[in-house]
Amino acid sequence: QAVVDFERLGEHAAAFQGHDVGFCCLGTTRARAGADGFVRVDRDYVAQAAELARAGGCKHFVLQSSRGANAQSRFLYLRVKGEVENLVQAIGFDHCTILRPAVLLCKRQESRPMEWIAQQFLGTVALLFPTAYSVPVEMVARAMVACALQPGKGRVKVLENGAIHELGKA
């Protein structure tokens, strides 16, 4: 494990060398970082880390994005997620897997009251419709590992929430 300064990521290129697979779950919130900070973290840092990984020999990059990611979206969150997906794909990894989970069910260290309410509601809905609106973070992690172990055919694979559930169960 290497601790890096994302504001000086280029100075940490050695930390990105010699890895076959890169996993990226980096992200923040607009509320926490502001609009500019959100874009810097969720798009710029992720794209720069992917570039360093590729330059360091990484063959397969696994990116956690978001359901609804779309570079043409009017909504900042979805637009930035779509933009970073496009940037990472353009880097030219042998394999690029993009996971688009719905609402992540997890315990957070910081207080996010509205997200907590949504998680409680969606956790209950998940009993009836387990793959429709949410996914436990543990399932996303298992799906990411499964993608790395068996990347499949094709250069780019995009997994929506239902496929994440299926892969995460295996």
UniProtKB/TrEMBL annotation:
<dbReference type="GO" id="GO:0051170">
    <property type="term" value="P:import into nucleus"/>
</dbReference>
<protein>
    <recommendedName>
        <fullName>Protein HTATIP2</fullName>
    </recommendedName>
</protein>
<dbReference type="InterPro" id="IPR016040">
    <property type="entry name" value="NAD(P)-bd_dom"/>
</dbReference>
<dbReference type="GO" id="GO:0003824">
    <property type="term" value="F:catalytic activity"/>
</dbReference>
<comment type="subunit">
    <text>Monomer. Forms homodimers during oxidative stress. Interacts (via N-terminus) with elongation factor EEF1A1 (via middle-region); the interaction is direct and competes with EEF1A1 binding to guanyl-nucleotide exchange factor EEF1B2, thereby inhibiting GDP for GTP exchange and reactivation of EEF1A1. Interacts with nuclear transport receptors XPO4, IPO5/RANBP5, IPO7, IPO9 and KPNB1 as well as GCN1L1/GCN1 and LRPPRC probably through their HEAT repeats. Binds NCOA5/CIA.</text>
</comment>
<feature type="domain" description="NAD(P)-binding">
    <location>
        <begin position="4"/>
        <end position="151"/>
    </location>
</feature>
<dbReference type="Pfam" id="PF13460">
    <property type="entry name" value="NAD_binding_10"/>
</dbReference>
<dbReference type="InterPro" id="IPR036291">
    <property type="entry name" value="NAD(P)-bd_dom_sf"/>
</dbReference>
<dbReference type="GO" id="GO:0005737">
    <property type="term" value="C:cytoplasm"/>
</dbReference>
